[in-house]
């Protein structure tokens, strides 16, 4: 069985909020603000794909990504943890804001690959948090989709998937082909490739396609779009600090209570 795992490279999500900036011209963070990394939920999906390969549930794993040229680093990471193949849809636009356009690109690539029986994606991107791409791909393929998956096994000839539900874990029998979106779980922390695998990953070729080669030129991509980013900004937060001077703690507490009451943040009983 062939599995395709959908990846995305995003801005380092551990960047301190006080350092985050938006360029109002491009409506995106300025280049060089922070390193670009494989998204956290994509890491979970990738780890699950490799686990399924190790247990014999799937025989082949292809990593697929749509993004700018620098996003190939995420595919090298996938090859380093023993994905069999990597495919990069090179999109010159720094960000794909519309999940419909992203799904259309990924779908066109999936249809050119060896037909997969399973497509894995992160539950949502770690930057825009749309949580739509996996479901849109499933809808266009006309395949069933199961979300928030954290474990998959083949038992008695059936594929069983565990997912996070409202009241706890849920188990589903899955009929293939199918799409699954993967959530975070302690068992899905992405492993590190060893030195030999890292060296092999740097030598292994990555298949690259442009949107035009997939039959999606600017007009076709525009037609696939459903959203237009009107604006994005970092909210401005005003901060005001007052220091209360007092001779002793009791006086400081009394002054603090008086000030809070004056600001209508506290009402003391009469």
What descriptive keywords fit this protein?
270 residues, Rossmann fold, alpha/beta, two-stranded antiparallel ribbon
List the helices and strands and how they pair.
Elements: E1 2-7, E2 9-11, E3 36-38, H1 40-54, E4 60-67, H2 72-80, E5 85-90, H3 99-110, E6 118-122, H4 133-141, E7 145-155, E8 158-165, E9 168-174, E10 178-182, H5 195-203, E11 207-209, H6 218-224, H7 249-262
Parallel strand pairs: 1-4, 1-6, 4-5, 5-11, 6-10, 7-10
Antiparallel strand pairs: 2-3, 7-8, 8-9
Structure description:
- This protein has 270 residues and is an alpha/beta fold.
- The protein has two domains: 2-224, HUPs (Rossmann fold); 240-270.
- 28% of the residues lie in helices and 24% in strands.
- The chain has seven helices and eleven strands.
- The chain has helices at 40-54, 72-80, 99-110, 133-141, 195-203, 218-224, 249-262, and strands at 2-7, 9-11, 36-38, 60-67, 85-90, 118-122, 145-155, 158-165, 168-174, 178-182, 207-209.
- Strands 9-8-7-10-6-1-4-5-11 form a nine-stranded mixed beta sheet, with helices on both faces.
- Strand 8 and strand 9 form a beta hairpin.
- Helix 2 packs across helix 5 (195-203) and helix 3 (99-110) packs across helix 4 (133-141).
- The protein is globular.
- The N and C termini lie far apart (74 Å).
């Amino acid at each position: 069985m062939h599995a395709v795992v959908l990846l995305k490279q995003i801005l380092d999500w551990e960047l301190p909020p006080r350092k985050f900036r938006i360029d109002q011209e491009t409506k995106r963070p300025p280049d060089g603000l922070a390193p670009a990394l494989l998204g956290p939920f994509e890491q979970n999906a990738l780890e699950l794909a490799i686990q399924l390969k190790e247990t014999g549930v799937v025989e082949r794993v292809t990593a697929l990504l749509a993004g700018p040229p620098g996003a190939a680093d995420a595919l090298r990471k996938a090859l380093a943890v023993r994905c069999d193949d990597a495919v990069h849809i090179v999109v010159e636009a720094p960000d794909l804001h519309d999940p419909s356009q992203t799904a259309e690109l990924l779908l066109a690539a999936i249809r050119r690959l060896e037909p997969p029986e399973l497509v894995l994606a992160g539950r949502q991107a770690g930057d825009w948090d749309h949580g739509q791409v996996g479901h849109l791909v499933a809808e266009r393929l006309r395949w069933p989709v199961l979300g928030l998956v954290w474990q998959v096994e083949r038992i008695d000839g059936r594929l069983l998937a565990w997912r996070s539900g409202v009241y706890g874990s849920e188990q589903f029998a899955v009929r293939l082909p199918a799409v699954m979106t993967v959530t975070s779980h302690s068992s899905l922390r992405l492993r590190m490739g060893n030195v030999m695998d890292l060296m092999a990953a740097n030598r292994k070729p990555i298949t690259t396609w442009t949107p035009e080669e997939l039959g999606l030129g600017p007009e076709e991509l525009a037609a696939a779009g459903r959203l237009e980013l009107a604006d994005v900004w970092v909210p401005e937060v005003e901060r005001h600090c007052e220091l209360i001077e007092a001779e002793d703690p009791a006086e400081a507490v009394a002054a603090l209570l008086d000030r809070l009451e004056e600001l209508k943040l506290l009402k003391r009983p009469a």
